[in-house]
Amino acid sequence: MTAGVPLFRVVHGNPSGEETAALAVVLAAKLAAGPPAGPGPARRGPASRWADRARSMRAPLAPGPGAWRRSSQPQ
Q1: Are 61 and 71 spatial neighbours (Cβ–Cβ below 8 Å)?
Q2: 55: helix, coil or strand?
Q3: CA atoms within 13 Å, Cβ hemisphere of 69
Q4: Can you give the C-alpha Rg of the chain in angstroms?
Q5: What is the pLDDT of residue 2?
Q6: Is the pLDDT of residue 63 over 90?
Q7: Residues 35-46 as b or e (16 or more Cβ within 10 Å = b)
Q8: Of 74, 70, 54, 72, which Cα lies nearest the Cα of 62?
């Protein structure tokens, strides 16, 4: 890194020297801490067939022999 090149610049507003120094300290501490040590976000596997909402959406009932039997069976 060359001297005289700013690491960040203020785009809007007019912060005091103390505010700019506080921001620099916070950013330096954040960079020094590194990535979080804990596990990443929990990934969920595919939903089970019991939790699948599409299961409750059945085809329309068709009249005919055995229709009463087919009315309660999932497709």
Answers
A1: yes
A2: helix
A3: 3
A4: 31
A5: 59
A6: no
A7: eeeeeeeeeeee
A8: 70
pTM above 0.70, yes or no: no
Q: How far apart are CA 75 and CA 68, in angstroms?
A: 14
Q: By the 8 A CB rule, do 39 and 29 touch?
A: no
What 3 state SS string does the chain have?
A: CCCCCCCCCCCCCCCCHHHHHHHHHHHHHHHHHCCCCCCCCCCCCCCCCCCCHHHHCCCCCCCCCCHHHHCCCCC
Nearest Cα to Cα of residue 56 among 72, 68, 70, 44: 72
Q: Which amino acid is at 52?
A: D
Segments in 34-71 forming alpha helices (H): 67-70
Chain position carrying tokens 């001297």: 3
| pLDDT band, residue 75 (cuts 50/70/90) | low
